[in-house]
């Protein structure tokens, strides 16, 4: 999941432009210049890349003679570099421009995805996934700003198109990984490289270079963590994201083992189908359910409620880790909870401080992805040492710690819910920022 700045990073120091009183329509969303469609296509592929490797982790483990722990490090190296890069992408794009940043990010993904597909060992793929993570961070962190800047009409319509790209990418990533992975574990990597290369060519041809951007300090996001409210929410996010990636990165292994125990084959295609359902549920609740719950319950009560349910669900996975059907059902239900949580947490970040939204989003995202990077590295050794249920139990504990951080730091969140609710355009930005894992 990588979160872009919720505003154009090159206007981060200025007040947000007033949103149009009229809600964006589907016509606004799909009546766009070719440049917007080019960015949306590349964004869809980029989001697909997040879940693409999930279905092929067991195949990589068995065919490259690697342990599950080593296979899951494909997520760790990717997310760790993404996390570090997120702190500095706004500064980088302010130096070279949005278009150049997009193209550098796409080029890095093309190169490192192709090299990963040609690799002969899991260690090589782990290292190459780090380069892939850097490219993805550069692309995703500036894609929303680029798509809004290139639109011909209301920016809310372009954001809806971006949301659509995000939802399709999150859902189709595991499915494409499963389809291509059923041919070879190498195929998803090569497929991503080809699709991203098409995106690179389209953006090169169709997106014009923007005016010289406003300078952003390279330390702006790091300094933002000195804000007590943002620091509180970053701690909430790092523990929550640990749980998120226990579910995403670890679950293919007990799922395959549970199926094998019942005498059934559960390969990349089947795992991809399960996480396709997970991604569809995540996209639906983030866009349609989260706004309703946050309006009715409030942001903080919504966060505490969803995290409590998520802790129960993780304990359910621990108890059902030997049941193929049980794991499948709980993973898909988990997608419903995670979609609400992602959007509500990012909207809380937007309301909690007076910091520029781009700076706050980059700082918060950088910290939360560290939780995602740690989870796969811990889940594998813990499973081997204690048992298959242990990572899920730890996931329940970490999401409980996330709730504790929220309760302890709640005194710093007095602004949340006190100001006017976000406009429909700002709410759409929260959805897109929250959904990018």
UniProtKB/TrEMBL annotation:
Coarse class of the protein's main subcellular location: membrane
Top-rank taxon, per record: Bacteria
Key word Transmembrane present: yes
Major facilitator superfamily (MFS) profile domain segment(s): 35-413
Coiled coil: none
Record field: compositional bias (Polar residues): 1-11
SUPFAM superfamilies: MFS general substrate transporter
Residue ranges of the region described as Disordered: 1-20
Membrane topology: Multi-pass membrane protein
Keywords assigned: Membrane, Transmembrane, Transmembrane helix
Subcellular location(s) per record: Cell membrane
Transmembrane spans: 35-53, 73-93, 100-118, 130-152, 159-181, 187-207, 228-250, 270-290, 297-319, 325-345, 366-383, 389-408
Designated name of the protein: MFS transporter
Native species: Brachybacterium kimchii
């Amino acid at each position: 999941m990588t979160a872009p700045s919720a505003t154009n990073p090159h206007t981060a120091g200025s007040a947000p432009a007033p949103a149009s009183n009229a809600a964006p329509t589907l016509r606004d969303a799909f009546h766009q210049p070719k440049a917007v469609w080019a960015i949306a296509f590349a964004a869809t592929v980029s989001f697909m890349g997040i879940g693409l490797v999930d279905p092929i982790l067991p195949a990589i483990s068995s065919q490259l003679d690697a342990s599950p722990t080593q296979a899951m490090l494909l997520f760790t190296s990717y997310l760790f570099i993404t996390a570090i890069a997120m702190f500095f992408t706004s500064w980088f794009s302010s130096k070279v421009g949005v278009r150049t940043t997009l193209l550098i990010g796409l080029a890095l993904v093309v190169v490192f995805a192709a090299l990963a597909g040609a690799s002969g060992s899991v260690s090589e793929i782990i290292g190459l996934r780090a380069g892939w993570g850097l490219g993805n961070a550069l692309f995703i962190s500036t894609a929303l700003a680029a798509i809004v800047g290139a639109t011909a009409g209301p920016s809310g319509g372009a954001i809806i198109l971006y949301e659509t790209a995000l939802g399709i990418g999150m859902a189709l990533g595991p499915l494409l990984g499963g389809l291509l992975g059923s041919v070879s574990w190498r195929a998803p990597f090569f497929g991503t490289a080809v699709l991203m290369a098409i995106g690179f060519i389209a953006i090169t041809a169709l997106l014009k270079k923007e005016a010289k951007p406003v300078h952003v300090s390279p330390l702006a996001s790091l300094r933002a963590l000195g804000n007590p409210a943002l620091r509180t929410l970053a701690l909430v996010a790092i523990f929550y994201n640990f749980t998120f990636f226990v579910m995403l990165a670890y679950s293919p292994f007990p799922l395959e083992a549970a199926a094998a125990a019942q005498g059934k084959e559960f390969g990349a295609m089947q795992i991809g189908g399960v996480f396709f359902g997970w991604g569809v549920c995540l996209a639906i609740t983030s866009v349609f359910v989260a706004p309703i719950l946050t309006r009715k319950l409030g942001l903080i009560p919504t966060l505490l409620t969803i995290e409590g349910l998520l802790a129960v669900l993780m304990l359910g996975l621990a108890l059902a880790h030997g049941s193929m059907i049980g794991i499948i059902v709980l993973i898909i239900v988990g997608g419903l909870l995670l979609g609400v949580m992602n959007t509500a947490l990012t909207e809380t970040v937007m309301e909690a401080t007076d910091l520029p939204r781009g700076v706050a989003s980059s700082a918060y995202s950088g910290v939360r992805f560290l939780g995602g990077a740690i989870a796969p590295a811990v889940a594998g050794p813990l499973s081997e040492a204690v048992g298959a249920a242990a990572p899920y139990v730890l996931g329940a504990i970490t999401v409980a710690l996330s709730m504790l951080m929220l309760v302890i730091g709640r005194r710093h969140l007095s602004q949340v819910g006190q100001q006017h609710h976000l406009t429909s355009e700002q709410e759409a930005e929260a959805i897109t920022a929250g959904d990018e894992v």
